[in-house]
Design a protein that fits this description.
The chain is built from 14 helices and 19 strands. By secondary structure, it is α+β, with helices and mostly antiparallel strands. The two termini are about 25 Å apart. The structure holds flavin-adenine dinucleotide. The site of flavin-adenine dinucleotide has 39 residues, from strand 3, helix 5, strand 10 and helix 10.
Length: about 475
């Protein structure tokens, strides 16, 4: 709780639409996409950078803790307040005015509260898009703070690769506005300061405006479900596709049988594309795309995909057991339903891991061999962005399992999985979801003291106030 006079002062700065204090009205801001349920002292909703600066400065001067929140789709307990009732949520949901497109530069300057879907809807008529694709609909500021990866990383990279400039409000007594705006792709005139605000979960400042790189909207897309001959054939299959398709290859996503079964059960309208409804042990979603319409005499993209698959089929290594070319919207509907599908199978313990590409399937096989002995009665429902080394390694426990009565069980399982991923395979415990309360302990454990000290120094220099859910130092 914060004192009533602070609420009055903040309302004066932001207007009556700019602050929420009713218990029921705050509920959506207190509830995370997956795990969390916190308690907010209030929710601030600035509509401009200037309002954000005034509110942040006020909070810092009065020792009020702030948690930035954008689309609230984050999965590591970063965007919601803790249970103390003392943290104030700073929401971006009214920061949606500015939309300044520069088609010649293939860039757009937007307020950080824009939803990804709304941004891409507005860009469609210019045949452009912001090329980060995922099964949720975040806001741009949250995507910057988490450095979202998504399903087309393989072709377009992550958010970091697509940011040209930022405007940031620092959590200091003045609510300093840092203008790191640039519409330039090439600019090496000193430290690239915007990088410290990308993927750092809002610890160093609140992103209020962004200049984004845009890409040409694909005009032809072809997709297929590929069944690899075995787990060991996934990487040879990826390499064979890269060799033959180069920059056409825009997604190479892996889906386990259990994850697909979860999606099919949860979304009955999904079509089961596999012969006889028999879902294979592991399936790859492959997509190829190009930005021009079919030209006379040019092979359509479906045919390109089919002929490349036929060629791979014939290779000596024979990494492919089966392939089903299908319409992109149907193929992607299954992929995008996986996350929600596994959530409905039982109690979900999710990991966002990454590895060298050659290690992903080895790690998954390692888990499949050892986990049943160590933690009987759990189900592995992994899927992931295999093309860029990412795996959403999900473990599901039946809701009536006695394991859940043991308070230490989940933590024990988490520590065991992460230790193998990080220590044996030199992977990352947070591939693309950044940091939050959920994975803070792994940051604390695995980050060298020297780096923590540097981060603490940066924090003091940028945002000495109480900001965000993560402690870097
Ligand atoms: C179904 C589903 C599928 C998903 N798939 C993917 C995927 O494929 N790839 C992927 O990378 N992620 C995925 N995610 C995770 C999530 O969507 C991303 O992390 C997303 O980028 C978070 O953005 P958001 O706007 O929802 O941010 P929020 O959840 O609101 O916030 C995330 C973090 O950023 C901080 N923050 C928010 N706004 C700001 C700001 N303006 N300035 C500074 N800090 C800020 C918050 O404090 C918090 O720490 C998925 C989530 C769901 C629910």
């Amino acid at each position: 709780m914060i004192d009533e006079h602070h609420i009055d002062a903040l309302e004066k700065l932001l207007g009556d639409k700019g602050i929420v204090t009713g218990r029921e009205d705050m509920e959506a801001y207190e509830t995370g996409a997956r795990y969390d349920r916190g308690r907010a002292a209030a929710v601030l909703r600035p509509a401009t950078t200037e309002e954000a600066s005034a509110a942040v400065g006020y909070c810092v001067r009065n020792g009020i803790a702030l948690v930035p929140q954008a689309g609230n789709t984050g999965l590591v307990s970063g965007s919601t307040p803790d249970g103390s009732g003392e943290e104030v949520v700073l929401s971006l949901d009214r920061l949606t005015r500015r939309f300044a497109l520069d088609p010649d530069n293939r860039s757009v300057r937007v307020d950080a509260g824009f939803r990804l879907s709304e941004l891409n809807r507005r860009l469609e008529e210019y045949e452009l898009f912001f090329p980060i694709d995922l099964g949720a609909d975040p806001r741009i500021g949250g995507m910057v703070a988490t450095n979202t990866g998504g399903s087309r990383f393989l072709k377009y990279g992550d958010v970091r690769r697509n940011i040209l400039g930022l405007k940031v409000v620092l959590a200091d007594e003045a609510g300093t506005v840092l203008d790191l705006h640039s519409d330039l792709r090439k600019n090496n005139t000193g430290v690239d300061w915007k990088q410290i605000f990308i993927g750092t979960s809002g610890a160093f400042g609140i992103v209020t405006e962004c200049v984004l790189n845009l890409e040409r909207l694909p005009k032809q897309t072809a997709t297929a479900f590929l069944v690899p001959a075995s787990g060991a054939h996934v990487l040879p299959l990826l390499k064979a596709m890269e060799e033959r398709l180069g920059a056409y290859l825009s997604a190479f996503e892996g889906m386990s049988k259990n994850a697909i079964a979860g999606a099919l059960a949860h979304v009955p309208s999904l079509k089961n594309p596999f012969p006889g409804g028999n879902v294979p042990e592991y399936v790859i979603l492959a997509e190829i795309s190009r930005s021009w319409a079919p030209r006379d005499g040019e092979q359509p993209l479906d045919a390109v995909l089919e002929s490349v698959l036929a060629e791979i089929w014939e290779t000596e290594e024979a990494p492919l057991a089966d392939a089903l070319v299908g319409p992109p919207h149907e193929v992607w509907a299954l992929r995008h339903a996986l996350s929600e599908g596994v959530k409905h199978l039982g109690k979900l313990i999710a990991f966002d891991l990454s590895f060298r590409r050659g290690d992903i399937m080895t790690f998954c096989d390692h888990m499949k061999a050892e986990m049943p002995q160590k933690f009987p009665a759990v189900t592995i429902c992994d899927f992931g962005h295999i093309g860029d080394g990412g795996v959403h390694f999900n473990v599901v426990v039946a809701k009536d399992s006695p394991l859940l009565a043991d308070a230490a069980f989940e933590q024990h399982l988490r520590e065991w999985v992460v230790a193998i991923a990080v220590e044996q395979y030199h992977g990352s415990f947070s591939a693309e979801h950044a940091l939050g309360r959920r994975n803070q302990a792994f940051y604390d454990f695995y980050t060298p003291e020297k780096l923590k000290n540097i981060a603490a120094g940066l924090k003091t220099l940028t945002s000495p106030g109480k900001l965000g859910s993560v402690r870097f130092g």
